[in-house]
Every structure is written in C-alpha cells, then in structure tokens.
Amino acid sequence: MANFDNVFFNASAFVGGLFLLEFGADRFVDHTAVIARRLGVSPTLIALLTAGAEWEELAVIVAALSQGRSSLALGNILGSSISNILGAFSLGLIFTSGEVKFDRSSKIYTALTLLFTVIFVLVLAFFKSIGKAAGGLLVTLFGIYIVSIGYYIYKGVMAAPEDDDDDSDDDDDNDDDDSDTTSVSDSSESTLKDEESASQKVIPLTPLTPFHDDNVASLESVPLTKPEESLIKSAPKIRRPPRSLTYHVFQLIAGFLALSLSGYILSHSVSSLADTFELSGTVLGMTVLSIATTLPEKFIAICSGARGQNGIVVANTAGSNIFLLTLCAGVLFLAGDVEALVKSVNTFDLLVTAASASLFAVVVFVGAKRWMAVALLVLYFAFIGVEFAIYR
To answer: How much of the chain exceeds pLDDT 90, in percent?
Structure first.
C-alpha cells in the first residue's frame, strides 16, 4: 500500500524542481552567452553551446549519478531523445500550415542526429564489452561535432542553429553592449529650434490689414508650447547602461547552483516515487522524467511552428538530441555503474530510439505534412503505453 503522504510530498517536490530547473537553465545559458560575448568568444560557439543544448538534462543526469541511480539517468537520456522527436517535433509540425520544406542546414543537422543516434545505439548494445571507454568516445564525438560545425558555419556552408530560448528578457539590455546608442544632442538641438520657431509664429499685421477682433482671436488660438516640455516628449528613450561583468558572473553562478539543486530534487523525487510504486527507474526516466524535462522543447516547437519558423523546430530537436546522445551519454558511461547500465538496456528501447531518429530524417528530407506529425504523436503515446504496460 502506497504511502500517499510520501507520494504527495515527492510529487510536489518534482513540480517545484521543474520550475527551479527552468530558472537555473535560463540564467545559466543567458549569462554564459553574455559573458562569452564580453570576453570576445566566437558567436558561433555561443550559438552551438546555447541553442538546443540540454544543460538541464545534464544536471539531472549528474544528480542521478551522485545518488547511484544510473538506470534513471539512462532512461532520461533515451526517453528525452524519443520525446524530442515523437513529442516536441511532431507538435511543432502540427501547428504549421500546409506542407513544410526544410533547407539544407536543417537536413545536415538531421543527418548528424541520425548518425550520432546510430553510434549511440551501437555503443549501448555492446556496452558490456566496451565498458567506460564508450564514454570517452561519445565525449570526443561531441567535441568533434562542435569544432566541425563551427568550422562549416564559419565557412558559410551551414547556418548557425537559431537560439531556442526566448526567455532572456533580463539580458535584453546586454545585447547592445557593443552597439552604438542614439545620440540625443543632435536631435535635441533640431527639436529646440523647431519648437522655438513654432512658438514665435504670429499673424502679421500690416498697415493694409485692419485690426479686427477675429485677428486677435487668431493670435490667441496659436498654441504656445514650452520648448522644454516638447523636448522631453520628443527626445528618444535613453537605454540604461549595461550590467557589469561581475553581475553576470554572479547570475551565472546562481544559475549553476539552481541547476544542481533542481537536478538533485528531480532525480530524488522520481526515485522515491519509483520505489513507492515498485516501478523501474528506467521506465520512469523514459516516461515521466523525460516528458517533464522536455516541456520547454515542446513549447518552443509549438510557438516556432505556429510562426512558420521551421528551422528553429529542426535545430531545437537536432541540437538537443546530439547533446543528449554524445555529451550527456558520455558522462553517464564514464561515471555510471556498468552493471546497472547493462541490466537497464532492453532491445525495445534501443529500437524505438533508432526508429524515431530515422523517421525524423525521413520527414525532414521528404517534406513534412500534418498527417506525418499526427502519426509521430500517436506513436509516442503508443510508446508510453507499452513502457508502462510491459516494462514497468
């Protein structure tokens, strides 16, 4: 019999951890980009490390490893990669209008996603014989990916992945650190002269013009505005000065601490729920945890699809999965429990992971239609049902 007080507490902690996770991820990514820009780091590298990068997933995986829950971390990686395609990508396509054609950069990112997925599945299938060397291989592949993509973007062969974070309102003032601000002095002088000429405008009275009351009324109707008041109204808005580097470093540290704390809360609460209901940690990682941690990707995909920004939908999906299946998986294989990981692997999960990446490539290369998106979403619900019905 489940202890409902314990269930309610862990469920509440899980929801609270999600909010803390998003707060920490936003702070960490946004202020990392600002600091890098201030220090002269390449914008391409910033885009690659922030657009689609699953830093919050990495925080959850590290926290799960620290608690000895390697199976939960593996389930989160597999489940998130499937959810990004069958869940987030399909939702983005559903909200688009008509048939969608993707550009060359989208197709290249999709092909890379399929390649890294195949490598990951093969490594996981033979993980027992390869061991921790598999982790080093995947981390190396992530480094090669960053360097090679950065090089081709620099050469103009590919377009940089578009940033999928639109929550950086705290840093909007920092986007203009190196831009020229509008000068107020020139516009102030011209405005002052115009207002002075307007205020001195009178109706000329010549000897041939009789002095009537209507002329006096005309004189009284001329608006006499104060140049200072008009200048205040017409002067351009002055931007506040950019934040100091120390401020952004502090925010970066705060984001990192929030990520670390939220990762611990999420992994611990899910593990407790798994123990309470006698469920497999891998299954909860594949379903509940992966759905929750990929909610931002789903929201971004819906908004981007509704606005016709199909490149963002693909970049978000491809970038997230490459990050998950290389760096996150590499860290897991290097620091995780080999025996627990071997026991957590099942053929069904590997086949679904490879199949979802293949379907992703087919849709992008052929062209997306709404019925394809609906079919992907139906497959995702079927996958969740099978996980709970058979592998719980």
So the answer is: 19
